[in-house]
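Incident review: delayed structure delivery

Summary: a single-chain prediction request sat in the queue longer than the usual turnaround. Root cause was a stuck worker, restarted by the on-call engineer. No data loss occurred. The affected request and its eventual output are reproduced below so the record is complete for anyone auditing the incident later.

Affected input:
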Amino acid sequence: MKIKIITISKTKSEYEEAEAEFLKRLTRYAQVEIVNLKEEPITKNRAIDEIMEREGEKIINSLDNDYYNIALHIMGKEISSEELSNLIKEIKDFKGGKICFIIGGPLGLSQQVIAKVDLALSFSRMTFTHQMIRLVLLEQIYRSFEIIKGSDYHK
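Output delivered after worker restart:
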């Protein structure tokens, strides 16, 4: 299985060790690629819509139609860990085994990105830093594979 994570921004050093641990654990289940796209500068003279549109263009240009594309979005569908596990298993078994998760920048994702994806998914109605949500996403992907395997990790 191939998993791509497209994100606006980079991981800060305090998260690198934890991310590396989950990436290491995931190697037995999937090939994981993280694509870091440069965040647009937020200044007084730039409209928020313009910034989101530019970041959205970068994301859209990085999407691959062979992948099942999932945007992490505050207004997306909320699902349980078990439901995410079922979705990953379905994509693995029946939809080509390629999945892409998209994490927006500080301003979120443009409507152009949301319109292009297969699913908008929310981990919570709360707002998280993109560094934190990357770590939560990696843990949930790992948890999903452990649920599929039937291990005790999820209990």
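Verification: Residues 2-149 form a domain with the Alpha/beta knot fold (CATH 3.40.1280.10).
Action items: add queue-age alerting; document worker restart procedure.
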